[in-house]
Write a structure and sequence with these properties.
Number of strands: 11
Organism: Hymenolepis diminuta
Shape: flat
Order of helices and strands: HEEEEEEEEEEHE
Keywords: Membrane, Transmembrane, Transmembrane helix
Distance between the termini: 28 Å
GO biological process, one term: protein deubiquitination
Largest sheet: 7 strands, antiparallel
Oligomer: single chain
Protein name: USP domain-containing protein
GO molecular function: cysteine-type deubiquitinase activity
Length: 150
């Protein structure tokens, strides 16, 4: 799954309802479902996406970290209400480094002058996008996208 897939999944949501539909009466048990389409009235100039890599495990009683990998896209699009699409370029990423939710380290990477730079406490270095997205145990947590000027 990619960030674009996650963003696209925001547009349509299936809602299950256990009460009867007044028009069609639903199926035999009275349940029905419908799709709701979500649109942006106005797309923002800067888009912050918080990826849910942490979740609460009620069985164990503590917060876990989801270590599943997903593709970070350097460019994504948002669909506007009028049907047009607005493109965004990735500007920065906050990473969580570690395998546990309660222990770890945060690292910032951003694109400056067409080069990616990693800020890891006092260690600052330039690198490639491919390198920062392939570092082991480094999970994208917050993604910052800026709109592409047209």
């Amino acid at each position: 799954m990619s960030i674009q897939d996650m963003v696209d999944s925001l547009y349509t949501e299936s809602i299950e309802n256990t009460s009867k539909c007044e028009k069609c009466e639903g199926d035999d048990d009275g349940a029905y479902s419908r799709n709701v389409t979500i649109t942006f009235q106005k797309t923002p100039p800067c888009l912050l996406l918080n990826v849910k890599i942490f979740y609460y495990d009620a069985m164990n009683g503590y917060t876990e970290k989801n270590m599943s990998k997903f593709d970070v896209s350097e460019t994504i699009t948002l669909k506007h209400k009028d049907g047009t699409e607005r493109r965004y370029n990735l500007f920065g990423i906050v990473f969580h480094q570690g395998v546990l939710a309660i222990i770890g380290h945060y690292i910032w990477a951003c694109k400056m002058d067409e080069q990616w730079t990693i800020f890891d406490d006092e260690n600052v270095r330039t690198t490639s996008f491919d390198e920062i997205t392939s570092i082991k145990n480094l999970s994208p947590y917050i993604l910052v996208y800026t709109v592409v000027k047209q």
